Amino acid sequence: MQKILVVVDMQNDFITGALGTPEARAIVPAAVKRAREFPGRVLFTRDTHGEDYLDTQEGKNLPVPHCILGTDGWQICPELLPYCREEPIDKETFGSRKLGELLAAADREEKVEEIAFIGVCTDICVISNAMIAKAFLPEAKITVDARACAGVTKESHRLALEAMRTCQIRIEGEV
Prior knowledge:
single chain, alpha/beta
């Protein structure tokens, strides 16, 4: 049985850059601790956009260029880099089908017992990817560590945690 930790979009632009928040900066130590101590495989997702970001649906709804492929803002934050031992899963949308496929393939090789999530933004990409994991591996225990997640706002973070709890995702470390 294997355990997998998914570190969602812990990139410079979401922590100290274009979309950085005090809440995102505040969870970095908890995310590092979780990645360092996790007794299993650690995967990272990386929000990835092109120069045409402002022409995309997301760019029209959130006109703040961020995580542009190859920029400093696109990079995983330096504190977490030592735990990024596999190539990050680049994703152009909030949720990653590739992540779901990778989790299903891992489960075929050795049963996945638990998939844990940490990262940003709780209310956009964490919830989207946790729901994808639930869809691909409905019998795996899906957990989210609230202490190592940050939302766009404190309220949207809380609402996302409640929505995931309703969908039978276990929430740890309520803040």
